[in-house]
Amino acid sequence: MQNPNKLEGNIIPFIPEGDFYFSKGVEAYQKKKFDLSLKWFQKAISEKPENPLYQCQASIVYTEIGSYHLANQLLTKVLSKHGEEYIDCYYLIANNYAHLGLLEDATKYAQIYLEKAPDGDFQEEANTLLELLDFSEEEEEDDDWTLEEEDDLIIYQETAFYHLEREEWEEAIAVLEEMLTLFPEFSQARHEYHYALFFIGEREEAITLEKEYLEEHPDNLFSCMNLAIFYKHEDKQSKYDYYMEMLANIYPIHEQQKLRIAVTFAQVGLYQQALDRFKMLHKSKLKGHPSYYRWYSTCQYYLGMEDSAMRLWKEGCKQHNILSVQSPAWEKGE
């Protein structure tokens, strides 16, 4: 995916005089102090909430730290109000969707960008992204979603993500059920629903639904990960082995999927394999995920790296309040 650092010259042509918060945000961003940069940009936005330039730059910082949904919320807002003046937002949204593994959405927005700006600053990057995604030409029924509908989808995604990361299963299920009613073709929500359903105690139903989905979509990565975890908890060794052997040979290119597969290995107790996968991740893009800190530190602890595990856990607690009120997984016997 495109490195957001390259976007700086295209999105920020100059620093407006007198905009102190924005200037400080740019300075921190250039020094790769992304958490500090975001705080400055948020201050700038609070001063001028309708300034599209501030929102675009804040979205780029969100992309850097892995909060792709939040980045797209800002970019969608800019497009809805400023449209043709900020066409680059279409490419930035496509790039974020690609990182999330939402490849159909990434394809759609990259194509919109190229239609609106065939000679735009990101023309080469958009074409490269489309080649990487390598999608078929078959169009989905939801290709004509309005920006308002896309904005609603992003809000649902972010809300569900919030509850899932905090293992608030009932809350997650309520959001996901409504999401599936409104956006039945959004497959990721279906897998997340099965996952939450399993851990709320509806194990048989979760397994049945996931198996049915996999029959219709063979080799679906999320189905394989879910079923591996489900069968581990159900002590169905042969079925668990089947899916884990499959996952051992899969190396996704998208950061979100890389994290999900690393967490899967950790959840089933394959800590060395999980550690190897965690080492491949870009930490700067995953700071918005409590699961990164929870399961990476767990792997370190069970592999004899107690000091490193505690340092990572404490760092995660500073990033996420939900971790600060929990005990590390190894203290709970997970």
TrEMBL record:
TPR repeats lie at residues 18-51. It comes from the Bacteria. InterPro entries: TPR-like_helical_dom_sf (IPR011990), TPR_rpt (IPR019734). Signal peptide: none annotated. Keywords: TPR repeat. Gene3D superfamilies: Tetratricopeptide repeat domain (1.25.40.10). SMART domains: TPR. This is Tetratricopeptide repeat-containing protein. It comes from Gracilibacillus kekensis.
